[in-house]
Specification:
With 192 residues, the protein is an alpha/beta fold. Helix content is 39%, strand content 20%. Helix 1 packs parallel to helix 2 and helix 5 packs parallel to helix 6.
Length: 192
């Protein structure tokens, strides 16, 4: 995982284990650096100060903001598992389905926006879409820790949502403005 926001989110949300954090030895204390140090200590995660070139050599994205973390992959869930968990917690599902999101930066931005919008899961097709790459996670700035990424066929996902009685709304450039469409209760928003 690369970047301060991503590392803070993975430590705060505890959805997966973090084995080690590498931080630029010259990183000046600020709110994020202090929070990473505090959470690493609290969770018993080893934090190692290293020279910047070491971080540059380990980085897969080229943009690490002086912090890298080695963590387990996020758990993979099906849409059915996400819905069952939401029903068990008595929450109305808010699902976003995206077709043909082939550019990693776009998927990261969708996950980041989804986190800020209260979306529970983003569904992308297995064949026509990116998975949870290091670039997606960095651009999502912690959104991947808060919003489950589901890899399933969109047709079967839409059929399941309809069977569950979840209202499906499609985004359209020529459609109504989103603030004019009722978006309460269980909802699935289709983009792309």
């Amino acid at each position: 995982l690369e970047g301060r926001n991503v590392v803070v989110e993975v430590l705060q949300r505890s959805r997966r284990s973090v084995h080690c954090i590498w931080m630029d030895e010259r990183a000046r204390p600020d709110a994020k650096v202090n929070e990473i140090e505090r959470l690493a200590t609290l969770k018993g995660v080893r934090l190692v100060r290293v020279p910047r070139p070491d971080l540059d050599g380990r980085s897969l994205t080229g943009v690490h903001n002086g912090v890298l973390a080695w963590a387990e992959p996020l758990p993979t869930l099906s849409l059915r598992e996400v819905l069952e968990d939401l029903y068990a917690r008595n929450q109305d599902p808010f699902i976003v389905l995206v077709d043909e999101v082939n550019y990693e930066h776009n998927l990261g931005a969708i996950l980041r926006s989804a986190m800020g919008s209260g979306v529970h899961a983003v569904v992308v097709p297995v064949r026509r879409g990116k998975g949870l790459t290091p670039i997606v996670q960095r651009v999502a700035m912690g959104g991947a820790e808060a919003v489950t990424l589901v890899r399933e066929g969109l047709s079967s996902a839409l059929a399941m949502l309809r069977r569950e009685g979840i209202r499906v709304v499609g985004a359209d450039m020529g459609g109504k403005a989103y603030w004019k469409v009722p978006m309460t209760g269980s909802l699935a928003l289709v983009l792309g």
